[in-house]
C-alpha cells in the first residue's frame, strides 16, 4: 500500500505538501526486491517443493523450441524495465533537488503504467519458462538449464540463446564454465545428437 509522505519545502514557510510520487518512484527503482508494509507479516509457504522434473535430450529440445519466444520476450522486457528504472531514478533525483515542488505527474503516471505493463509481461514470460521445469541461469544472456541424468549423475543440459540446439551439459555443482559436449554414448534410447 502506498502512503503519502510529507515534503516540507524550503522558502515556502510552513506549508506542507503530500507527494505520493516520490514514494512511488523510490519504491519502484528495484523491482527485484518486493516491498511490504511495515505491519505486514511475511507469508510463510510451508508447501513442499515438487520433485525436480528430469528431461531427456529430446524433451529438452522440444521445450527449448517452445520457450525461445518467451525467453526473447523476457529479455526485451527486462532491458526496457531497466531503461525505465533509470528514467524514474533521474526524475526522482530532480524532484528531490527541487524540493518536491515541480513534479511531472502526467509523465510519471505514464511511465508508471508502462513500467507496470512491462513488469507483468516479464513475470508472465518467466512463469511460462519456469513452469516447464527449466531453470533460468542467466536472463541477460539467455542461459537455460534442463535437469537431466547422464551416467547416473544429476546434470543440467545447457543451452544459451543463439545456439541452434542443446549440445552441452554440466554437473549440477558446476556452472557455465564446466560445460562439456554431449556424447552420444551418454544419451538414453531415442535421444540422438543432431
Concise overview:
Helix content is 39%, strand content 16%. With 194 residues, the protein is an alpha+beta fold.
Helix-strand layout with pairing:
Layout: E1 6-8, E2 16-18, H1 20-27, H2 57-97, H3 105-130, E3 135-138, E4 143-150, E5 153-160, E6 168-171, E7 180-181
Antiparallel strand pairs: 1-2, 3-4, 4-5, 5-6, 6-7
Helix pairs in contact: 2-3
Characterization of this structure:
The chain is of the alpha+beta class. It contains 3 helices and 7 strands. Strands 3-4-5-6-7 form a 5-stranded antiparallel sheet. Strands 1-2 form a two-stranded antiparallel ribbon. Strand 5 (153-160) and strand 6 form a beta hairpin. The model is unreliable at 1-39 (pLDDT under 50).
**Average predicted confidence as pLDDT:** 76
- CA-based gyration radius: 23 Å
Q: How would the global form be characterised?
A: elongated
The SSE order reads: EEHHHEEEEE
The N- and C-terminal alpha carbons lie at a distance of 53 Å
Count of helix runs: 3
User: Reading side by side through the largest sheet, how are the strands ordered?
Assistant: 3-4-5-6-7
Helical fraction equals 25-40%
Strand content: 15-25%
The counted number of beta strands is 7
Largest sheet properties: 5 strands, antiparallel
Report low-confidence residues grouped into runs of 5 or more: 1-39
Derived from helix and strand composition plus strand pairing, the structural class reads alpha+beta
Characteristic terms for this protein:
alpha+beta; two-stranded antiparallel ribbon; 3 helices
Amino acid at each position: 500500500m502506498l502512503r503519502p509522505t510529507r515534503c516540507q519545502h524550503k522558502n515556502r514557510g510552513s506549508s506542507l505538501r503530500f507527494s505520493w510520487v516520490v514514494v512511488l518512484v523510490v519504491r519502484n527503482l528495484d523491482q527485484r526486491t518486493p516491498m511490504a508494509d511495515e505491519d505486514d507479516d511475511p507469508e510463510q509457504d510451508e508447501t513442499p517443493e515438487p520433485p525436480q522434473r528430469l528431461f531427456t535430450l529430446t524433451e529438452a529440445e522440444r521445450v527449448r523450441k517452445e520457450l525461445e519466444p518467451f525467453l526473447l520476450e523476457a529479455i526485451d522486457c527486462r532491458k526496457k524495465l531497466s531503461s525505465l528504472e533509470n528514467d524514474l531514478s533521474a526524475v526522482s533525483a530532480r524532484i528531490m533537488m527541487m524540493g518536491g515542488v515541480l513534479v511531472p505527474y502526467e509523465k510519471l503516471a505514464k511511465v508508471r503504467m508502462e513500467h507496470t505493463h512491462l513488469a507483468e509481461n516479464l513475470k508472465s514470460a518467466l512463469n511460462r519458462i519456469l513452469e516447464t521445469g527449466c531453470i533460468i541461469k542467466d536472463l541477460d544472456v539467455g542461459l537455460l538449464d534442463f535437469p537431466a541424468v547422464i551416467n547416473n549423475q544429476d546434470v543440467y543440459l545447457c543451452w544459451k540463446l543463439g545456439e541452434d540446439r542443446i549440445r552441452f551439459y554440466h554437473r549440477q555443482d558446476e556452472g557455465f564454465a564446466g560445460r562439456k559436449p554431449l556424447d552420444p554414448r551418454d544419451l538414453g534410447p531415442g535421444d540422438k545428437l543432431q
